[in-house]
């Protein structure tokens, strides 16, 4: 449990975050500042923010379950796929996001396809995102719950309210500045915790020796090559913009070349930093023995090790994890709010809305979406924990929304009809293989099956539409105008 010193450290950290929020609020003058940092965010800050926003407390809770129960395959699941995804994104998507003059991830869809596609993807993307937000908030609440003993549901509500208030005033700048401070603090704590853990188990060789034999391989029963192959495609889509908050990191940068550097730096961080997160979990079998609830593993190891070094370090760890998760949730809610404000409210209901009105709508929707995230987190408590809720739901239904969004930047031929059919056919495929496959065949419906088939069908439909569909002269001209902005990206 936290000591009085730990609570003091958490309090001081909260004051620091409030100060950062105040500074960020002074930087917000209009909707561009609120939703996209005025497209003036330095590439290195965007890279760190992209990295921090890509894991949050879920890496310590949801993936903690995997690391404790399956060993090294947890790193295989999380590190290399994101590294590969970001290496691809550095040359395919990050520069294009930066090149477009947009404030939301789906805004460009009207220029590329039409307003119908923009609306469909805006509404459906908002609808599925709360599964993801609920998991993140649930993961944060688990950390606080284990450290303090406070009731889980009350912690979820309290953490959610604090997160909403912070974003309400500071927008994207508040999120990114917090990311930077959190990264420095958490990295520093990791440099203390990891050597202490390794020293306690006899170094790397001792770490491997004390692992159960079936935990020492790159793959496991839960992370099979087939599963990882399919999930890697989900990761490619998610981290390059399918997760809207991560797309913000790239279109908030002013130049394509800088966006590419941000993606490369984030790739390197994702390849190596997860090792520091998982080493304490891999050593848990030796350090603390059997853990009844694997989601508590990281915090139980930290509670054993950090107080031996210095009082207050555990509180600092809690505060930094809170900031990381708050940032991740804030960035996603910011993107959702931006989509509703610009792509739905302004485009459909009030085309002549002033920037002042749009900013006010954005702040109101921030509160609404934040409240829905709290409700989703409370629901996650009943969905078999963070790992299953994240992997089996959000990851599975990400494809139909993300494929036309990201591939539409790369391929000229697919039409707006193909984008809509790809979206619809992907969802129908998911429903069939998730819920209809087993009753019809008697065979298990696995994640690799229903997600892989969904992605494959969405992709095929999208690409075929470009080969068999005919564009009107107006559509052809519109498409050429859209792609012309990428012709001199690196000049």
Give a short summary of the structure.
With 491 residues, the chain is mainly α. Helix content is 80%, strand content 0%.
Layout of helices and strands:
Layout lengths: L3 H24 L3 H6 L6 H10 L5 H13 L2 H20 L1 H6 L8 H5 L2 H34 L3 H50 L1 H8 L14 H18 L1 H8 L4 H27 L1 H4 L9 H13 L3 H37 L5 H26 L4 H23 L8 H26 L5 H22 L4 H12 L7
Keywords:
single chain, globular, Sodium/glucose cotransporter, 491 residues
What would you report as the Rg, rounded to the nearest angstrom? 22 Å
H/E topology pattern? HHHHHHHHHHHHHHHHHHHHH
Kindly report the average pLDDT value.
Answer: 84
Helical region count?
21
Helix content: over 70%
Oligomer class: single chain
Shape: globular
Question: CATH top level?
Answer: Mainly Alpha
| Separation of the first and last Cα atoms | 56 Å
Assign the CATH topology: Sodium/glucose cotransporter
| CATH architectural arrangement | Up-down Bundle
Low-confidence stretches: none
Number of domains: 1
Structural class call reads: mainly alpha
Description of the structure:
The chain has 491 residues and is an all-alpha fold. The protein has one domain: Sodium/glucose cotransporter, CATH 1.20.1730.10. 80% of the residues lie in helices and 0% in strands. The protein has 21 helices and no strands. The chain has helices at 4-27, 31-36, 43-52, 58-70, 73-92, 94-99, 108-112, 115-148, 152-201, 203-210, 225-242, 244-251, 256-282, 284-287, 297-309, 313-349, 355-380, 385-407, 416-441, 447-468, 473-484. Helix 4 crosses helix 13 (256-282) and helix 9 (152-201) packs across helix 10 (203-210). The N and C termini lie far apart (56 Å). The mean pLDDT is 84.
């Amino acid at each position: 449990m936290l000591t009085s010193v730990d609570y003091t450290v958490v309090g001081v950290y909260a004051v620091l975050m409030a100060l950062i929020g105040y500074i960020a609020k002074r930087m917000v003058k209009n909707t561009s500042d609120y939703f996209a940092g005025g497209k003036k965010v330095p590439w290195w800050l965007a890279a760190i923010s992209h990295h921090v926003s890509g894991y949050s407390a879920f890496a310590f809770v949801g993936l903690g379950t995997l690391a404790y129960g399956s060993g090294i395959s947890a790193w295989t699941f999380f590190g290399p796929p994101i590294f590969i995804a970001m290496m691809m994104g550095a040359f395919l998507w990050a520069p294009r996001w930066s090149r477009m003059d947009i404030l939301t991830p789906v805004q460009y869809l009207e220029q590329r396809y039409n307003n119908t596609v923009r609306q469909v993807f805006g509404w459906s993307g908002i609808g599925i995102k709360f599964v993801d937000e609920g998991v993140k908030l649930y993961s944060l609440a688990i950390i606080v719950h284990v450290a303090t003993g406070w009731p889980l549901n009350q912690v979820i509500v309290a953490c959610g309210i604090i997160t909403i208030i912070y974003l309400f005033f500071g927008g994207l700048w508040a999120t990114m500045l917090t990311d930077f401070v959190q990264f420095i603090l958490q990295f520093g704590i990791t440099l203390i915790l990891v050597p202490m853990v390794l020293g306690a188990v006899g170094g790397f060789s001792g770490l491997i020796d004390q692992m159960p034999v079936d935990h020492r391989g790159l793959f496991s029963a839960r992370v099979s090559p087939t599963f990882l192959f399919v999930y890697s495609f989900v990761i490619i889509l998610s981290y390059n913009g399918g997760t809207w908050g991560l797309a913000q990191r790239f279109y908030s940068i002013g130049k394509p070349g800088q966006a590419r550097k941000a993606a490369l730096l984030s790739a390197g961080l994702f390849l190596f930093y997860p090792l520091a997160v998982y080493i304490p979990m891999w050593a848990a079998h030796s350090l603390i023995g059997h853990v009844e609830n694997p989601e508590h593993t990281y915090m139980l190891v930290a509670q054993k090790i950090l107080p031996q070094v210095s009082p207050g370090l555990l509180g600092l760890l809690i505060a930094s994890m809170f900031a990381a998760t708050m940032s991740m949730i804030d960035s996603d809610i910011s993107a959702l709010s931006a989509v509703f404000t610009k792509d739905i409210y302004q485009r459909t209901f009030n085309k002549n809305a002033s920037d002042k009105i749009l900013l006010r709508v954005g702040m109101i929707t921030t509160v609404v979406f934040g409240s829905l995230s709290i409700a989703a987190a409370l629901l996650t408590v009943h969905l078999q924990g963070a790992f299953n809720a994240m992997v089996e739901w959000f990851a599975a239904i990400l494809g139909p929304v993300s494929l036309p969004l990201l591939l539409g930047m790369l391929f000229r031929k697919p039409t707006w009809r193909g984008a809509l059919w790809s979206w619809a056919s992907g969802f129908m495929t998911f429903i069939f293989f998730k819920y209809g496959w087993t009753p019809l065949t008697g065979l298990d419906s696995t994640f690799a099956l229903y997600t892989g088939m969904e992605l494959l069908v969405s992709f095929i439909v999208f690409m075929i539409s470009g080969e068999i569909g005919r564009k009107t002269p107006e559509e052809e001209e519109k498409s050429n105008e859209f792609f012309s902005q990428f012709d001199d990206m690196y000049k």
